[in-house]
Amino acid sequence: MKIENPAFDYDRLGQKYSGHRQTDSRIAEHVHEQLTGATTVLNVGAGAGSYEPTDKYVVAVEPSVTMRQQRLEKSKVPAIIAKADDLPFDDNSFDASMAMVTIHHWQDIDKGLKELRRVTRHQIVIMTFDPEQLDNFWNAEYFPELIEVEKARYPTIDFIKESLGGHCKVISIPIPLDCKDGFQEAFYGRPEAFLEKQVRQSQSAWGFISEDKQEEIVGRLKIDLENGNWDNKYGHFRTQEYFTCALRLIVSTPETETTNR
To answer: 241 lies in which domain range?
Structure first.
């Protein structure tokens, strides 16, 4: 499957995005740990400001007017209007940079990641999903069309590491059962959430599937929830405290910095 433009239309469809996509404090601990030592932080594709540290000087970049407005509603710093592949900053302007579940929206991911490296002195922290692990979540059984969209948009971990260069480490992030951030895997133990249109509208991959097809897809899950088949196969997830699947943090530091440590 090939998607010409991977960007979700937040200005048309993202009006209620931040109501479902919020910072989960347990995931935030993993992010903020990787920002240790930084004073200035650039957040690219910043959206409504999820996972931005409150103890650092943050500069946000966000092209969507809808998302910039939602930042202000949440008392976040106003965002600069720009895109990842053409950042309006000098080389080495920031101690660290971050991009939280956004790179799959970028038209030129390689160029965007190289721009992050250009403007960042030390660590770059990327939160994304590993497309090679998406089949390990039960929704691949019910929503294979959705997983096909996701695989077409998410870059591989190796691609990200090669684009960033330097020394990269990859961290698997466990997702809590009552996760506040409404991406797909957040509902591993709350399958009924997928029947709600507003929840799906906060998961960008659904925006690449027609309304009629969405109804068909979620109809499969609805039937199995009603007849008990889902619980027979996956009911243990309803009480499983954490689920580790495809969510990853990729942290890149320059080779020279690694060498000097």
So the answer is: 12-260
